[in-house]
Write a structure and sequence with these properties.
The complex is a heterodimer of chains A (230) and B (252). Chain A is built from eight helices and no strands. Chain A is mostly helical and 230 residues long. Chain A has one domain: Methane Monooxygenase Hydroxylase, Chain G, domain 1. In chain A, α2 packs antiparallel against α3, α4 packs antiparallel against α6 and α5 runs antiparallel to α7. Chain B is of the alpha/beta class. Chain B has a domain of 171 residues: Rossmann fold (3-Layer(aba) Sandwich). In chain B, α4 crosses α6 and α6 runs parallel beside α7. The longest helix of chain B is centred in the middle third of the chain and has 14 residues. The radius of gyration of chain B is 18 Å and the shape is globular. Classes of the chains: A mainly alpha (230), B alpha/beta (252). Chains A and B meet through α3 of A and α10 of B.
Chain lengths: 230, 252
């Protein structure tokens, strides 16, 4: 094996991204838990975590930039670093979504609790599962696992669409709970965005492993032959 | 204008050493094609087969077909004519040290019997302009020797010398490996300009250079052409694992 130091640097980059991924995933779980139990101390944890995620984003970008400049990577190494840069941005936005949920929970403190006829925990579980699976695909370099994430996105979109419809109707029928319904709507929307980021991460893993750009449902077949040979 | 090169089942030997095995590829006209691979992989031997320089070694042997512009250079034309149509630039600039800049560029034409002063003047000026050297040397054409120029200028002088005999193909064997980054950039810019008029084949160890200047890239390993594809494909998503291992530095 030549370029041992470079390989070590790639491993370090991957490890750092996984640390950030763990924090982003935890942030979503905490934010949803804060909403479920209306606990502001959990919101504080989410907010602090988001700042740590932002710091890591900058560090990872710097590491990736250094590797691009100093090592001039090619082929699978180049695709890996590009994928890391993009996944890094998506994970940072997962952190932002957690923070957005946390903000909604704080706002809800001003209003009496009201039962919302939508299933936020189910949407949250699905979105978290997508993030977890996308990261599993990243850890294992497994494009097939990444593909399975893409197919999960529709379920979250449907749940969010249904929540949107239900909550708008509720606001019309019961204007008194409109603030709570509006916040629930924004939380559902934030979770839907988390699922979108998980989808992006999965697409980046496919790009890294197969060299195929499958974004926007285009060119899904490209590059499969090489991956099959791995 | 440049012409395409068709290579079919080319084999080459140095004595008992089989240095090229069944190489088949098509080099398109008016493009730059880069050849990469570890030392001793056969890429330099390959370009030396394209202008019949390989056979100048008494223990060397070549079989197969190399058609330049549809003409088989091994059976349908002379070695001298081949080397007029196919110019070559080497790793180390090799101007004739005792000749002036002018005489260096004119040397190929004079060897071919051209003596008319006006014609020689025109060709020298045009060749130096094509090689992006004219502005730097036009006032010293006959005052300074080729050896008095900087390394980068000497290499461009050698390119001008190769262009003076109006070739269709320009072979470059690591033309910038002995040059500093600024001179290297000038040579790369020049390759980009020359493509419109010549077919260029460049051997390089510098993969970033191949990626910058060439439309197509061939990867050689142990005398075999492992992969030949668009440069974009080779450097972002090569089809063969051996190509990927080489360009990512996992061996070589």
């Amino acid at each position: 094996m030549v370029r041992i130091r470079f390989q070590q640097n790639l491993d370090d980059l991957k490890e750092k991204l996984l640390v950030m991924a763990g924090m982003a995933e935890q942030a979503i779980q905490r934010a949803v838990e804060a909403y479920r139990v209306r606990d502001l101390s959990i919101c504080d944890l989410v907010d602090r975590g988001e700042m740590a995620i932002n710091r890591l984003e900058r560090e990872i970008d710097q590491m990736a930039l250094d590797l691009l400049a100093m090592e001039q990577p090619m082929a699978i190494d180049l695709r890996f670093i590009l994928a890391v840069i993009k996944i890094n941005a998506d994970l940072e936005r997962v952190g932002d979504s957690a923070r957005a949920i946390s903000d909604r929970v704080r706002e809800l403190q001003a209003f009496p609790e009201a039962e919302m006829p939508i299933d936020i925990p189910r949407t949250a579980n699905l979105a978290s599962a997508m993030v977890r699976k996308a990261l599993q695909a990243f850890i294992e370099g497994d494009a097939e696992v990444a593909e399975s994430v893409l197919s999960m996105d529709d379920s979250v979109d449907k749940l969010n669409g249904a929540a949107h419809y239900t909550l708008l109707n509720l606001m019309k029928k019961e204007p008194a709970v409109a603030p709570q319904a509006l916040n629930a709507l924004m939380i559902s929307r934030a979770l839907e965005r988390v699922a979108d980021h998980a989808t992006n991460i999965a697409e980046d893993v496919i790009f890294w492993v197969r060299g195929a750009d499958v974004r926007h449902h285009m060119g899904a077949a490209a590059g499969n032959s090489k991956a099959d040979g791995k | 204008m440049g012409v395409g090169i068709e290579v079919n089942l080319l084999n080459a030997w140095y004595g008992a050493n089989h240095t090229l095995e069944d190489i088949t590829l098509h080099i398109p006209a008016n493009e730059a094609t880069a050849l990469i691979g570890p030392s001793g992989c056969g890429k330099s031997t390959f370009v030396r087969c394209l202008n019949r320089m390989h056979e100048t070694n008494p223990i060397a042997k070549v079989t197969g077909e190399v058609k330049v512009g549809g003409v088989d250079i091994y059976s349908e034309t002379s070695a001298v004519e081949v080397r007029r149509r196919i110019g070559m630039v080497f790793q180390r600039p090799n101007p004739f040290p005792t000749m002036s800049i002018y005489d260096n560029v004119a040397s190929g034409l004079r060897l071919n019997g051209f003596r008319v002063r006006r014609v020689l003047d025109e060709v020298v000026e045009r060749s130096l302009k094509h090689a992006a050297l004219w502005e730097e040397v036009k006032d010293d054409l006959k005052k300074k020797s080729g050896a008095s120029l900087s390394g980068g200028q000497q290499q461009r002088l050698c390119i001008a010398r190769a262009l003076a005999v109006d070739p269709e193909v320009l072979l470059m064997d690591e033309p910038a490996s002995a040059l500093d980054p600024v001179s290297t950039a000038k040579i790369e810019d020049l390759i980009f300009e020359l493509k419109s008029q010549y077919t260029i084949v460049i051997v390089t160890h510098n993969m970033q250079q191949a990626a910058r200047v060439a439309e197509r890239t061939g990867f050689f390993l142990n005398g075999k052409l492992i992969e030949f594809d668009s440069t974009h494909k080779i450097f972002t998503n090569p089809s063969d694992k051996r190509t990927e291992d080489y360009i990512t530095g996992r061996f070589g």
